[in-house]
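Cross-check.
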Amino acid sequence: MGFPVRRLFVVAVSLYYIYMGACKVTPALNADLHNEFRSSFSGHAKVFPGRLNVKVDPELYRLIFGVIEIVSGALIIIGESVWAVYAVYTLLSLQTFLCLSHYSQGESTKCIPSLVALNLIGILAAGSHSTHYKCE
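Predicted model, tokenized:
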């Protein structure tokens, strides 16, 4: 993949994560999507921390996920190579967790957008010829 196309792909994926993170944090951009995240994170808060007998407020959980997505998406665009790599692997971890959380709740159809996002960020993690896109 040529440099301009790869850079356009990086910016598009980063803007996707910034948008989704902003929708998790505030209803200003898309109120329907924000309400969907509010309902789904009440289930997510029961899956992982609930199995460890830790009570987590779903609103705080959603806010933390949203802020991490916004910061990681911004770091991929403007960060130095090391921080961009950390941001990509952080997003990989978040998307993997969301897929597993949907699957363990029995909502396998809601897992599809998370799998698509996981594949997009996986392309960034793999890069071309097994190198990251910023480590060339």
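Helices lie at 3-25, 31-51, 58-78, 81-104, 111-126. The chain has a mean pLDDT of 82. Passed to J.P. for a second look.
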